[in-house]
Design a protein that fits this description.
Four copies of one chain form a homotetramer. Chain A is α/β, with parallel strands linked by helices. Chain A contains eight helices and 13 strands. In chain A, the strands form three sheets. Chain A has a seven-stranded mixed beta sheet with strand order 7-6-5-8-9-10-11, sandwiched between helices.
Chain lengths: ~280, ~280, ~280, ~280
């Protein structure tokens, strides 16, 4: 059934949920799903309400207009949107294609509902894999001698496309601060370790050297600080002494795929809030 | 801080959450935590609201009285109680003491807050272990030749104690239907397999014979049908071909402990609803 | 480095490992990896030895000839083969393509090293997906009115191809006993539940109805008894009350993919022994 | 059945396993369990052989004497001991008793077979808990003003007891280098984070601040570098945004208990080898 999503975060106060659910009820809305979380430490309130669209007495534009004064009064960060509206996504990859292949498969079979504006890579390796899906592949080389030019071109692609989400699906370049800052909470990266262990390069090799008994992957929003952004999801798996660094790479790929796919799903569903350097994830 | 809990389940209707949160707001209550779930299949609504007691304008008795007509109008099953009130629990065990020892330790260190009315066993094995904690140990033998008499005595203990929860912590007797029926949703059993696999006796031996690669434990409310009651929690762990049936017993003990401890915690916190043969668990 | 694999199972006796490792040493072989397991219950011995091929003083044919009398003397089931020789595999699928897509991806990127003789399906849905990989797709319809004819055609395909492994990658037809019996330990099935829970049809729906808190998948060798064959691997994941049967299907897909991919890997690597209705899996 | 354990590590060479299993066979020994691992990177060989004592033609002293020249020739680090001989263990704790209580329980019920020389603490909190088990409790205060004196006293206890294993079961003092160096591979510590994340103090608080979605515990051998020693086992569990730092502490306790209990078990069973800063764990 068609669903309208109200997503909101604001300073906590007494009666907030009553006010919000009252607003929905007042417009005839049948609540399908409600998630609410109050962070006592920050004094912040987060909620996501899924309303059966057919039961609403007004259209989505009118609903937004009606909520405007309430949102302002609460000094809230809020959106009201149709759950069926598909987000526009840019996928980015370098030379390791497992996360890209996984997302493409979930997209093609309908498990993840989003529109792929284009796939961007600093290499040509996956052009055929992308184009045979009927998707646009854009090669934006990042020449180490002149990275700035490459990133400027990348920025131009983003400005042209205006994506709701940029997924770094094993894109092995560190984005410049300006790009990260321009799309806060909208650039998602999959790091191939169980952060904060093994920040930076070659995490599997370093995990092997440290002799850890579990390896993992971490999906987080990219910020100016490398591998320091808010974590959305993590996945781990047990390894043993007989696993070589190459085995860790192989086994870790499945962790990466799973953590990334779930994070993308939750982002698309409006289920992730950023709160400082943490995330509130209203899982489904 | 002191907390008042409203727990309710009723047929779903438009505006329910608004009505409930409005009721709390109307009495000045600051909502600390709200969980709500609507089961579309059964058309049933479930909610648990944690309210900061100090902010309420009335006492708990008055609050209950004020909610009475609302609850009736909704044909709801509801309770309002102080989160700090401790449930009265009867622990039951036969000859395997790991679950009992685990619960006693969590109780003693304050991780699980409840009052232990007594520990009941059909054997004398754990009398010393129980009594040195300053707890009452009751030996209620279940003689196979005259089980009825034993269960009658057990029923008398329950009637005398009037427990909020009875935990079968590896109590290896099948309770008669009448006892199960007398305490619906209040008798909790830990079964040493990943139900519905290996219902009944000797699950670890049968798991070994079937060659499963994961074993587990299941905590459920006891019903008249053996091992068929609503599942509260499950835990599994990986095993390999080199594990003997005895190894499975040893490894499984940790699964049993964990699944049982979490289930008890959630029951005590008013976080478990029974819905047909399923449970809604508002985890913390 | 090139590797020669000796895989053997036989009745246990004193000095077996000494005899086997002595045989390898006598031919100059450097042991890279040794796994040994003695099942005390059945009195059976299982071993897998990986030898550095370059260090062997004789070719593989001569090595086999030299081992012949030893193997006979031990009444052993044994093989000696080059680890690099690729197994010939038939993949089978019906209308749910996630396991097929996953295996194709792992095959294409080299994670799983095997030759795909063909993909067989009782439907046409995945012809394009298969053929664009340059693989042969064979449509063998199984008409419910005349299943025998369909299975006879399937048997003919197997006889023509002579596969080392047949993977039922969500092939939704029950193979007749004769086919199962003709390829013992060489037909692998992925069942979409945590066996022995939910044998047979619609396991996710039944898992939802039973209210389990963990769902899973089981990869096993197919035998004449449906879903009763020796289990190779299992995978589970936690679910909650808010997950619908459709959610379980979605979440379960990742369990199926992982359990199947690992099982195929271990089979290809000569790491799985069947022992009665159990498997010995010498994991890597 | 009585079991004799041969544990050995040495530089790798062709024919090693043949030599070792030949030695056992030559003395009539029936091998119950063999584990072997060759670390290609370091060129080191590790093995553990469990032999049925009754089948050996000589006593353990004679067997050791017979192995002496072989071990020397291989420049090996080796032991031969009766599996039934119980290790002498010192348990150490500060003010958090969950790990101690868990080990005591597993010891009392026979799950872990070892002798407890004494329990040492820098506080008096757990004297009663220990003494009621009939165990010796030693209070060795570590006064921050004169730590050296405290650690000297501790060293004297160790010298008196000559333990096979010292378990820091949430002992919240950093041992001086000299003590660590005196008992290499024999001091085991449980750290309350998923190392190498959150080395040092307050890991749960920092895990909460970093917003990780999985928390864990790490058991490792203590070395002069704090939290940097070879890891024996790790355990993780999923957490969510609604878990407070206090919740992480509570949930983490179960991770700590499990990782520590397994590590102790493997150490007692002669299943752990230290190799540089990694461990080889031949799990059971």
């Amino acid at each position: 059934m068609a669903t309208t999503l109200l997503k909101i975060s604001c300073p906590d106060q007494v009666g907030l949920l009553s006010k919000l659910s009252g607003f929905v009820a007042q417009h005839g809305g049948n609540l399908l799903e409600v998630h609410q979380f109050t962070d006592e430490r920050s004094g912040w309130f987060f909620a996501r309400m899924a309303v059966e669209t057919e039961t609403l007495s007004v259209g989505i534009g009118e609903l937004r207009a009606a909520f405007e004064p309430i949102g302002s009064g609460l000094r809230a960060d809020w959106t009201i949107r149709a759950a069926e509206s598909r987000m526009k996504v840019v996928l980015m990859v370098s030379r390791l294609g497992h996360c890209l292949a996984d997302l493409l498969w979930r997209w093609r079979c309908g498990e993840l509902a989003f529109d792929i504006a284009c796939v961007v890579s600093n290499h040509e390796d996956f052009r055929a894999m992308v184009e045979r899906e009927g998707l646009e592949f854009r090669h934006v080389p990042i020449d180490s001698a002149r990275k700035e030019a490459g990133f400027a071109q990348l920025g131009a692609v983003f400005e042209e496309v205006r994506p709701d989400l940029i997924v770094l699906a094993r894109y092995m370049q560190v984005l410049p601060d300006t790009l990260c800052a321009a799309y806060p909470g909208r650039i998602m990266n999959i790091h191939h370790s169980f952060l904060p262990s093994f920040v930076g390069a070659n995490p599997y090799q370093r995990a092997w050297e440290r002799g850890v008994k579990l390896i993992g992957a971490t999906c987080h929003y990219a910020t100016a600080d490398l591998d320091q952004g808010p974590i959305i999801d993590q996945e781990v798996t047990r390894v043993e002494h007989f696993h070589s660094p190459e085995d860790l790479v192989r086994i870790g790929r499945d962790c990466e795929r799973l953590a990334l796919a779930r994070s993308v799903r939750w982002h698309l569903g409006g289920r992730v809030f950023v709160s400082g350097n943490r995330t509130i994830v209203l899982r489904d």
